[in-house]
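Folds vary. Our protein:
___
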Amino acid sequence: MDAGAKTEAIVLERDKRIVRTIMSQFKVGDTVEVNVLNPESESGQSVVSFRRYLGNLAWEKLEELQKKSEQLEITIKEASKAGYVVDTAFGVSGFLPQSHVAFSSDGLASGQTIKARVLELNRVDNKVIFSQKQLLSEEEFAALSKQFKVGGKVTVTITTVTPFGLYVALPKTKTAKAENELEGFIHISETSWDKVSDLNELFTSGQEIEAVLTRFDNETRRVSLSIKRLIADPFEALIEKYPVETKVRGTVSAVIDGDVIFSFGTDETEGVLKKDKIAPGVSYSEGQVVNLTISDHDKRKHRILVSPVLLEKPMGYR
């Protein structure tokens, strides 16, 4: 390129993606801005870089697309639990959250090209968030939300099963436009009162399920739901059955990180003896039978806490 010096300047670029961008966007005679990397190389030529100029062009293009809410093509680079790392044709990478994958998409593969909109843009943090969906406006979300109420039961369709929860589509309302659709999310912790390790064993995309509406999020324009709240918390029944100070006879089922797990009663209820409540010099082994007292109920973790019935108070034990 002609940089106004005695000799022509050259661009040495090893990144093939940037080279392709340069070749596709520019032609002989174009005036561009470059950064001088070396005023005079061994060959006597200046070495310059297009990178900053290309970066400015790319961010300006993204800003324009965001303002106009126009789509662009992005390529899936790799998948993560929360979504997909993607590339654009002009060299800027970004992220497509799982929550912004189109309802019709049943998993996206590396190398796949899709169309999306720029949802968030922050050049300072080099952050670009894309969305396949047309985000509802505050007014549209508020209008659709009025058709439902927190605590109400609703039949929803599962659109995506992820390791951390279920994305679902709420039923269309009579007043909604054809393209307007409320999206809901059911966190894995809200799918069952029991511990769930793999949602794919229980749910599939396209499946219709019943759930309870728990929250409307105006910021993400999404609705939170729960499956487990369709039924009463079974732990409440255990609290009534085994109130504090109840005496039981438990069998050691496991010792985990110093905590001792007991099972007791005809229903094999589980109780936990915390390691900091174990008297000095006392140890427990699997199969050992111990007289216990219900000491507390951990409602958050759904655990019954127990302590051994002491025949005598050991020295130093509190």
Remarks:
- The radius of gyration is 30 Å.
- The chain has four helices and 18 strands.
